[in-house]
Amino acid sequence: MIPKIIITIDGFSSCGKSTLAKQLARKLGYAYIDxxxxxxxxxxxxxRNNVDLxxxxxxxxxxxxxxxxxxxNPKNEHSEIYLNGENVEYIIRDLVVAEKVxxxxxxxxxxxxxxxxxxxMGKERGIVMDGRDIGTTVFPHAAVKIFxxxxxxxxxxxxxxxxxEKNPNIDLDEVKNNIALRDYIDSNRKISPLRxxxxxxxLDNTNLSQKEQLDFALKLVHDQFEPVxx
Length: 230
Hints:
230 residues, Rossmann fold, 5-stranded parallel beta sheet, 3-stranded antiparallel beta sheet
């Protein structure tokens, strides 16, 4: 039985972080927390309520009216995000939200709100959380940290395939531009920019299957407890 630890998976958009995190959590019997979904849900609320991103008072007021929680869907056993009691797991994947999420996530008050919620979720340990700053800001002392990368062309194709199922009118260049913009904002924001933690293990999954990347992550976890087993 693997002891309860915190595992963080950071990386650029469309690197497959959530896929690996979900599989790893299921394999270990851990809880999976999608930090990106939290920022997307906040963005959805801001879009719906026309929150002025340049108005600090308006942003703070909006955050006071936001409640986020993850509930496991008994049909597919996936942890899905709820915004003020509404399941928004699929709504937040729309391009309208994708185009705004990096800008919203770069706001100081939004990050403070989200990080506090994420740290609260990790108090009991036994979680796998993916995002942009989980191993650097949210859980800097996590036992296992992974930083994922993949070639841009592969990332664009993955995101296009994912979004095409929901919107057949989506344009490949539109997806490419969106990913490039998110990369720039995530990497250059002043607060908790996307970067690899010094003690994070790099995982380039450009040419890896899902099974290969899961095996890679599981080995990292089991290696943590190998001295104990001896």
